[in-house]
Amino acid sequence: MNLIQIAEQYRDNLLNDVIPFWLEHSIDEEFGGFFTCLDREGNVFDTDKFAWLQGRQVWTFAMLCNKLGKRDEWLKTAKHGADFMLRHGRDVNENWYFSLTREGRPLVQAYNIFSDCFAAMAFAQLGKATGNAEYNDVALRTFQSILSRFSQPKGSYSKAVPGTRPLKGLSLPMILSNLVLEVEHVLPRETVDSTIRECVRAVMEDFYDPETGLIMENVTPDGRLSDSFEGRLVSPGHSLESMWFLMDIAHRLGDEALMLKCKDIALRMLEFGWDTSFEGIFYFMDAKGRPPQQLEWDQKLWWVHHEAIVAMLKGYRYTGDERCLQWFHRLHNYTWRHFRDAEFGEWFGYLDRRGEVLLPLKGGKWKGCFHVPRSLFLSWKTLEEIAVSQTVTV
Predict the structure, then answer these.
(1) Cα torsion 307, 313, 319, 321: sign
(2) CA distance 390 to 394
(3) Choosing a second label site near 69 at 20 to 30 A (CA), which of 154, 218, 233, 389?
(4) pTM above 0.90, yes or no
(5) β-bridge partners, 331
(6) Cα–Cα distance measured from residue 78 to residue 76, given in angstroms and rounded to the nearest whole number
(7) What residues form DSSP beta bridges with 50?
(8) 259-270 burial: b if 16+ Cβ within 10 Å, else e
């Protein structure tokens, strides 16, 4: 298939398979919000609701409205999830809980700042889609809260003993580099610019190790390596996702040096994380090749491969490096062959090392309506851009 045909494959799967799956099976008409614990056929196997997955699904449907036009069903679905979040999602300090019962009673405290991150994304996109000032205000206040917690994202919920081995994680500066662009329309310009600068600095100076060419998951507060389980941890998926976030920033800034560096790091992360025996990308790795702490280290996860596809397409779109296109085809073939469920729709989330389905669920505590539709949308549009640019060049 040529690139236009592949783009149509991504578009068709998004609009005629994945989105209809979530519309049919995930909406809780009785209590509001979304079910995310869905088995292979879409049956609900648990009714707990996880705040970050609620926010992610609101974002997905609001984003589609903003990018493809305001279909009534999409907008209704986004508002449905947002209303549940507004009624039940926050504690008295306006921090977002991690999980709730089906009815909306809090189950797990607001220990996880990523609930806040995806709430901010959700309400910013929905505010853009509707023009509703309340949604935009929620996004703004939530983003300001995230910035205030930047140095201690878990706050009082941290399990670490202070002072013994202080470490900071890649996850927050990584996600902020994307989140700040998602909520840009509700923020002062100086907040956008300063957040972008700090996120780029943190990822590329603190977490990037030039000696190995790897992005580390955890470093000391001053950006040094830590020879410990946590300090040697590498997550190829996180690294690849962060690189396409920063490629978008480099494109925005017209920073060619940053763009090329991000592309090269993404290629290095794929080479490092690729399973040469069974194909696919490892979930976790140890930077020094030692046994990882995570027992699930060799599983193949849906989101890792979807983010890798986006990173390679953006790398090729922005730089023309043929290695990115070669890797895209390799990832495309593996991902569509192993993760997509051609019988019941949507995509499997968890494979064992050999590429066999480990859990046949379509959603759960960690997988919801986000990585698959976002990747399909971005891949579709980026493939079209590449095809157009090649036509113009010819």
Answers:
(1) positive
(2) 6
(3) 389
(4) yes
(5) none
(6) 6
(7) 99
(8) bbbbbbbbbbbb
